[in-house]
Structures are given as structure tokens and as C-alpha cells.
Amino acid sequence: MKKRIALLPGDGIGPEVMAGCQKVLEAIAERFNHEFLFEEGKIGGGAIDAEGTPLPEQTVALCEKSDAILLGAVGGPKWDDAPSHLRPEKGLLGIRKKMGLFANLRPVSTVKSLIPASPLKEEVVSNVDLLIVRELTGGIYFGQPSGREGDKVVDTLEYTKQEIERIVRKGFELASVRRGKLTSVDKANVLESSKVWRETVNRIAPEFPDVEVEHQLVDSAAMQLIRYPEQFDVIVTENLFGDILSDEASMLTGSLGMLPSASLRSDGFGMYEPVHGSAPDIAGKGIANPLAMIMSAAMMLRYTFNLFEEAQAIEVAVQHTLEEGYHTKDLVIENGQELGTEGIIEKVIEQINE
Amino acid sequence: MKKRIALLPGDGIGPEVMAGCQKVLEAIAERFNHEFLFEEGKIGGGAIDAEGTPLPEQTVALCEKSDAILLGAVGGPKWDDAPSHLRPEKGLLGIRKKMGLFANLRPVSTVKSLIPASPLKEEVVSNVDLLIVRELTGGIYFGQPSGREGDKVVDTLEYTKQEIERIVRKGFELASVRRGKLTSVDKANVLESSKVWRETVNRIAPEFPDVEVEHQLVDSAAMQLIRYPEQFDVIVTENLFGDILSDEASMLTGSLGMLPSASLRSDGFGMYEPVHGSAPDIAGKGIANPLAMIMSAAMMLRYTFNLFEEAQAIEVAVQHTLEEGYHTKDLVIENGQELGTEGIIEKVIEQINE
Ligand SMILES: CC(C)[C@H](C(=O)O)[C@@H](O)C(=O)O
Ligand SMILES: CC(C)[C@H](C(=O)O)[C@@H](O)C(=O)O
């Protein structure tokens, strides 16, 4: 198979973890006889410095002619005080919207060797395996008006029925190929948009008779994620709730440095990025953990290229690497051996080649 | 001191915990020589059944002539499918707005004997002592428009500068009499209202040179609350973020059944209620935990009546009761003795009278 992959390394540790990820994909291409064509584009702070905008047109053009996008991370203190339109995250929001990446998937599952690093008790998190499906191109992130007028400031949470329907349907589809449980999260006791959301879930439910549906209010879901996270299979929710809950969920299993994400369009095209940020404090030191970036590449192979065996080869390689006790500085494995970014990449590639 | 206290027991376990709370306040009145005049009003589901509205005018009138309000809890499955304006929580939102209760205070602190019941590890929560200050009468809860038009649905997050200023100032004031640290939570990388929020915090900060100020994004705060909750002293945030984060925080220390809240007006008038809900599944069984309601009454004595010694008498009584191993069914104390609602109230009153 021949695929064009746009690489947007971004800021901070982005370039380091992307370099490692590319090597892993090259090992996969070699072993499974594919051709991956990589081309790099600028986004975020680096793009602001070089081109005066967080999302240059060439980057959009590159993404449009590619089969999938890999993104590292954007942002850093250097651009923190810049005006809105010159902030790195505008690049991220822009590419999501421009490419129509409406479905953000964030799986969180327990990695046995990392449980000791969780702030939660082992018995609470030992079997967590959940997937947050977050709407990514609507809601209060993009609604108008958003601005000041005299003494007032407003933001607008806006959805069309179609936008709600397609993400809810995505949630059902994913639940039906997992454990068959969908938890829809809203604030239907306060928000009109949440009422429409809940009605939509209830209207679509009969199309998926094998999926058990449950509604939770967002405040309650924020509690339940800590109290009893194993109750969740797929959680589907709107943009801002998904932002908050997925970050909360990323803390559960002590494996933040391992968590991948996918942002998908209806036709399967997607952008893949680690959940962690650009970690400017450790950038350039050669100690960044590339595993979340690599796991994101595995999601790309599975969701956009339908290369299931190849995706699994990466996931198994990562798992074995950890089981053998190899880890980066951010992970805690008892009696393990700490390696740098390049060191752990080598171990993963050895596993792939075995 | 002579005080009129409006009692709004509400639904589910509300009436049971309110009855216990009233007894405790009577014991305080006796011991410290005060006169508390109690008068009951309807709110929530019970008010819908009796009067056809979740917030009858008599209830508002009662609150207006009182010196403070104690609220039990509202809601239950019976009213879950009712149209918006006939839902119990409309009573709660209505009374907050009508009485101008803009500052919601939710303290969460570790109770040593309850740590084993926390889903978090002991070393993570053994010294939690934080206070969430949530804006309660603005934001997306009340902004207009909120409704459907054709295929679209919108909600509006709206604040005036004055609304942001008064809650931020409240946060600073509270931080300055606690450990001197204020964490302001917003989503300034996306929302215009959050930018105004952050500017307001930075503008007011110089008035409180002894308070250390920090900004966190709401997604990051949702992570940090689990990762390292002891970093927080006072957290100040807008209505919906406060709703989500305070419920999340309520899970930290394993003591949900103990957590009180205050909703204050600028002149010190306030409504006090437990953080837990109406728990319809255990209503009427005599097993509900009244301690959060009692701790709410202690907050009333302190914040609205300035009766510091009396407030402390309640808090110490509750603490000693738990230390002696007495607890209700929802709490877990190793080698403790389980009591019903009335049983634990008796123990608390014994402590007060000692
Ligand atoms: C950087 C920010 C705009 C972004 C978001 O809120 O969507 C981030 O938090 C995320 O979750 O990818
Ligand atoms: C019942 C509901 C409207 C309310 C809120 O969202 O404010 C509740 O969750 C709370 O926190 O008191």
C-alpha cells in the first residue's frame, strides 16, 4: 500500500516524538511491504515564527493532498501572551475545522505495568478500558457571536441537528464494535442544546438495539469517572465537555505519556496526535516519551488505512517493551530501566522486527 | 441572638436530613443562648405536586423575610420527564437567581477516618483542603438566547464585567484569609468570556499582594484535581466549570456525604445546602447521612450570622462523632459502628452538650 502522510511536528517535544514515530512507521512499512511518503508542514508556534500565522496555507494544502495527518503538539510559553489570532492553538482549532475532523476519539485503558503510577487505587483502575468520543468542530468553540459589547461578553454554544446526529451515530457505531455500552454526557437539566442532544441519542438508539444507552449529566460524569471508571465503555459528548472529561480521564491510569487520539472526518480521513502537550520544559533534552505519538500512528493505521495487523504490531511492540521494563523518565515501572526517546524507539523497533 | 431561618427540605432524603439538622441547631441555640425561628417552605418536586410550580411565590416571600435559608435537596425520577419549567431543579436555579446568591462556596477537606473510602491513594489525598468558589447566577445557565431555531440550537454564555469582578474579588478575599493561594480556572485559549475573566483576575490581583495567583485552563484543572489536589487552596471559576469541577472534587476524599455548600449574596445573606443530591433510592428508610446538612448549617452560622464559636461547636462535634467510629451506611470507617439518621444526630447532639 502506498500512503502519503503529512507530518506536523509542531512545538516543544513535538519534533522529537515525531522523529521517533517516523522511524517506527518506516519499520512497519519495511516489514509489511508498504510505502509511506512523509512530508512535513509547519503548525503552531513554529509556524507563527516562520510565517506569521499558526496555520499557513501550504500546511492546509499539504494536509489536503495527504491520506492522513500526524501531529506532534503545539504551544509554549513564548507565544502565551500573543493576541488570539497569533496563538499556536489557533492552528490546531483551524486544521480541525478546515479538514472537517468532527470526531475526536480518545481511548484510555489500563497498562498493567503503569498502574502503580496512577493517583487512583489499583482496585479502582485495574480494568479501565474506555473510549471518549468528543465532538470537535462545533459547540462553544466555534459559535457566533463570541465577543465583547460594552460591559458584556458572550460566547455561543451552537449546534445543528446534523452535527449532533453524526457524532452521536459515531458513538453508537463505536460502542457496537466494543462492549456495547454508550454513555451520553450532557447538561440537559440546564442547556437547550443538551436537550436536543439527549433527544437525538434517544431517537437514534433503536437503530442500535445491541447497544445499551445511558445518559449522565456532565457534573455527575466528572464524579463517576473517578468513583467507578470501569463502568464506562464509550462516552459520547459535545466539544467542551469532551475536552474536560478526556483530560480528567487521561489521569486515571497513570499513563498520560501513552495516550493517543484520533480526529476523524466522515470518510475515514483523520489527524492523529498524542494527548499530552508540547512539554516545553523538557524539549530538546532527548527524554520525551514518544509512545503516545507511536500509539497515535497505530490508530492511524487502523482507522484511516484499515491496516489492522500493522496497527496491532505497533501496539504489541509497545506493550512488550513496557513489560520488559523499559520506560521513559515520565513513566514509573518498578525495577524497570529508564531510557531516552531514541533508546525506547529502538526497543520498539526491535520488537516490530522480531 | 434571634434569627429567622427558612427551611426548604425539598425532595427525597431532604426532609430527613433537614429534621436532624433542625435538632442540632436547637441544641446550639440552647447551649449558646440564641433564638432560632424556623419556618418551612416548599421547593422542587414537592412544590410541583402541591402548587404546580417548583418555586411557589410563598417560598420566595419566606426566603425574603428570613435571615438565611437551609435547603435539603431537590429532584427525583418522578419528575424526570416533565417539561423544563416543571422540573425540580428550576426551583433551585430560580431561588439562586431571585435571591442574588452569586457566590457558591464548596469546601473539600480530608476527614482522616474516611480516607480509606476514597478512590484515590492515601498519599494523594491525605492533606486536601481546598475551597471551590463558583459563580452561581450568570454564565451559560442564564444567558439568552437559549433555544431552537430551525435546525439550530444555541445556548449563550454571558457575563457582565461587574459579575466577573464581584466573584473574582470574593475568591481573592477568601484566599487571603486561608493559605493565600488563588487558582483561577478558565478556558482563555478558546472563550472570549474567559479572556475577560483572566484580565479581571490580573487587574484585581495587585489589590491582594499577599495572595499568590495562578491561572489554569479548565481541562488542565480537571487533571490536576486528581493528580495533585493538595496544590489547591481557593479555586475561583465561572458557573458551569464550577459545577463540573466541584462535583469532581467532591469525590476526592471519600466523604461526599459530609460536604456542605454555601450560596452567598454580597451582604452576607446565604442559602446553605449539602452537596449530595436527593438520593431517592434511600429516601424514607432512616439511613440517610445528615452530616453534610449539619455541616451546611455550621457554614450558615459562620458566614451569615458570624457565630464562629457556634459553627466550630458543630464541626468539632461532627469530627468527634466520626473519630469515635460512629457513621452512617454511606461512610466507611474500619471497625466503626453504623447508625441511622436519628442515631448519628443523637451522637452529634451529645457532643455539643458535653
Ligand atoms: C489547545 C486547546 C484549544 C485544545 C482544545 O481545547 O480542544 C486542547 O485542550 C485539546 O483538547 O486538544
Ligand atoms: C441541579 C443542577 C441544575 C445544579 C447545577 O447545575 O447548578 C446542580 O448540579 C448543582 O451543582 O447545584
UniProtKB/TrEMBL annotation, chains A, B:
Location of this chain's protein in the cell: Cytoplasm
Enzyme Commission identifier(s): 1.1.1.85
State the needed cofactors, names only: Mn(2+); Mg(2+)
Please cite one Gene Ontology biological process associated with this protein.
L-leucine biosynthetic process
Q: What are the binding positions for substrate in this chain?
A: 96, 106, 134, 219
Domain of life, source organism: Bacteria
Q: Name the UniProt key words of this record, in alphabetical order.
A: Amino-acid biosynthesis, Branched-chain amino acid biosynthesis, Cytoplasm, Leucine biosynthesis, Magnesium, Manganese, Metal-binding, NAD, Oxidoreductase
**Quaternary context:** Homodimer.
* The protein's name: 3-isopropylmalate dehydrogenase
Gene that this sequence comes from: leuB
